[in-house]
Amino acid sequence: MPDTPRYDLILKNGHVIDAAQGINGKRDVGIANGRVADVEPDLPADRAERAIDVAGKYVVPGLIDLHTHVYAGVSIFGIEADDLCPKTGVTTSIDVGSAGWVNFAGLKRYVIRPSQTRILAFVHLSAIGLTFRRGELIDEAWIQPQECAKVVRENRDVALGVKVRLYRGVGGDADLADLLKLTVDAAQRCESPLMVHISGSHVPLTQFLPLLRPGDIITHCCHGLDPATILDAKKKVLPEVREARDRGIVFDIGHGAGSFHFDVGRVALEEGFPPDTISSDIHTFSINGPVFDLPTTMSKFLNLGMPLEEAVERTTLRPARAIGKEDEMGSLRPGLPADVAVLDLRTGQWEMRDSYRNARMGDRRLVCALSVRNGKVWYNAL
User: Pfam families from the xrefs (predicted)?
Assistant: First the structure.
């Protein structure tokens, strides 16, 4: 009598990259009961209900996109997560501030709960979140740190912390540093990190940095607009920026439609200051270009000189760590939910653009070939 299958699925002959386990080489991945069961050099195909040959492909933990907007139908920025994530290998999408403390309940009920994609969120300091494109802090009545903190505390299962955008005019004539202090107040009240958008600010980044705490996240770190930039006048990384990272501030890409410049990204890499996390800032104004998806954003960094294993780490382990969930995701460690992205690294010439319409030619591009969510094949283009 044949042995009972040990695995529901085996991904065979792929090249596994898993920074959490220090794996970078050929492995098979065995999946059972929705979780990773084994990662070994050779697992017998006849011990699985289904075996898929992924030779020539990279098998990585399901991608975690740390900056997205998925409150479709309510936020002007919102896209449908389940329309995009399966075919791009993103198994966890972090919505950052699309919902504020007044309308967060709708995000949880109508988007997070029914979604196949795992969706977590930062709650906006503004009551209304990112309902419209600008001006979410222009009414002082919308800014109530205690109410924002309350929503985070009462939704710990999906709420990660507090989000704020600090650009010129976001709060009318309000001082941006004062708005950041209110955000820190909210984050401290709920004992959570904050994420701050710095692109478009008319205040130097060095004025914001002393207010941030270890674990807080700066998104859009490689935008191309002065004065809130990580670079000095000589195009070198500011010493205050390096000091901020040394004390635990997280620097995230957040590409988006207006917040990533090739030259800033290139200089950061050359200066030994790569982003801690690579995220897409995918939304209605960036999904059809220049962002498209997270693998495309990763590809831009490959073509700027970042090694593949580092790009994978910055979209798996690093974002999981940034949100305090590295024991739940970001790895193929046995026992964790079986969220997997199988990536094809294609060669050839392709044009890529940053958020400022600058074009470059690249010769490597990542494309999702297959994704697995909770142990089930979610997308398959093999």
Answer: Amidohydro_3
